[in-house]
Design a protein that fits this description.
This protein is mainly β and 96 residues long. The protein is 0% helix and 54% strand. The relative contact order is 0.36.
Length: 96
């Protein structure tokens, strides 16, 4: 699937890259691989399906302000599986 969600880069320097993602219901990031470890800060409540290349779907319930972190190298696609718009801020950590 291609990217249908809107990605807005808010800040980038040699240490971090901050991107806001906005999704309407059914919109997706498209399949991608994270080159860096990252932190996600949900802006809104919502439900996502994280889809891996083998087709495994992992549903997640996001809560505004409840952050989580993931390591680099995970390949996946994130889909807004809810019925309302969804937004989160992704902070990639470019230094070890």
């Amino acid at each position: 699937m291609t990217t249908t969600a809107r990605a807005t880069k808010q800040f980038e320097d040699q240490r971090v890259c901050v991107t806001r993602w906005d999704f309407e219901p059914g919109e997706s990031t498209g399949r991608h691989v994270h080159a860096y470890a990252y932190v996600v800060v949900p802006v809104t409540d919502g439900r996502t399906d994280v889809i891996t290349p083998d087709g495994t779907v992992t549903p997640s319930q996001l809560r505004a302000g409840e952050s989580y972190a993931r390591p680099a190298d995970g390949e996946h696609e994130v889909l807004n599986a809810g019925t309302a718009p969804l937004s989160f801020v992704e902070i990639e950590l470019k230094l070890p």
